[in-house]
């Protein structure tokens, strides 16, 4: 029996729960512990856990149960402001083998380093849910384009640049098997607007980056228009256009299916992590480097110093 702890079971957290539930329905022996402070969400969570029947042991709390204890996997699906405290509380009470963090990881540069030091010291495997690495469509492209720098242009409107830019920056590293060397947020529109998430802001415009193999990425989000995302790839003489919403890829004027993967479909990824000790999600150390560039550029955009404790209000 593998022990799994899920902290935060709102919208994104519930999708993680569905992925774990699919593992249980497929025969995996999991003991699921869910912590969600919002009591109004408990009805839906309890009903889903009950639907799994006797195939699993499960428990639902509105706060962390007392330790000691041990978990093979902890998933931290809180907002960015609460995630450091959640990690510290979980780590101080329980023995952990692996942790999957939602993103944006944390609101400060200091949090990135402090958690990295803890994971390394205690030999806890850390991963970040930049899930495009799990998508069969992107995995096939990475294999096919492995010898050529892949330039990426992301366009769209109202898809949440502050929250989702890190997904595409990670995609650039994944497709290129290279790391980001420089980032520039000078193309952002001045200022910000309040996010639908209380206490956070949203940004519009363009963020650009250059990778160690010479590839580039430009991520643009417009303020006008229905939510949409189109990903354009150029690798040498080849060009690809990916409609992620429609799950279609256009290559040489010909459209074909493009397999994506939602968070609720990460079942195989979690089983690999639980059974093998590793998975295809972004290693924490790699994501920390991406986040360092990203947070530093946003702090500059907001007119704030890139100091360890300076808060960047994106999640």
Automatic annotation (TrEMBL):
This is Gfo/Idh/MocA-like oxidoreductase N-terminal domain-containing protein. InterPro entries: NAD(P)-bd_dom_sf. It comes from Albidovulum aquaemixtae.
């Amino acid at each position: 029996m593998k022990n799994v702890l899920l902290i935060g079971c709102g919208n994104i957290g519930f999708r993680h729960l569905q992925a774990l539930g699919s593992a249980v329905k497929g025969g995996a022996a999991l003991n699921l512990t869910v912590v969600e402070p919002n009591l109004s969400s408990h009805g839906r969570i309890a009903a889903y856990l009950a639907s799994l029947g006797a195939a699993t042991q499960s428990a639902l709390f509105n706060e962390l149960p007392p330790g000691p204890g041990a978990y093979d996997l902890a998933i931290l699906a809180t907002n960015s402001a609460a995630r450091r405290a959640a990690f510290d509380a979980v780590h101080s009470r329980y023995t952990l083998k692996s942790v999957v963090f939602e993103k944006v990881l944390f609101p400060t540069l200091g949090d990135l380093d402090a958690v990295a030091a803890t994971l390394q010291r205690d030999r806890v495997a850390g991963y970040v849910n930049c899930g495009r690495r799990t998508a069969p469509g992107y995995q096939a492209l990475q294999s096919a384009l492995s010898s050529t720098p892949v330039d990426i242009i992301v366009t769209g409107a109202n898809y949440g640049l502050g929250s989702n830019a890190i997904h595409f920056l990670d995609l650039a590293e994944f497709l290129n098997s290279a790391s980001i060397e420089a980032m520039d947020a000078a193309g952002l529109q001045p200022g910000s607007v309040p996010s639908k998430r209380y206490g956070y802001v949203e940004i519009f415009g363009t963020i650009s980056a250059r990778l160690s193999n010479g590839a580039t990425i430009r991520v643009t989000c417009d303020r006008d228009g229905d939510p949409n995302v189109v990903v354009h790839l150029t690798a040498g003489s080849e060009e690809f256009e990916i409609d992620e919403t429609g799950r279609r890829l256009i290559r040489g004027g010909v459209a074909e299916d493009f397999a994506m993967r939602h968070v609720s479909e990460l079942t195989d990824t979690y089983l690999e992590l639980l059974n093998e000790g590793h998975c295809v999600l972004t290693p924490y150390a790699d994501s920390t480097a991406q986040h360092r560039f990203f947070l530093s550029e946003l702090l500059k955009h907001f007119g704030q110093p890139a100091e360890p404790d300076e808060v960047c209000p994106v999640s």
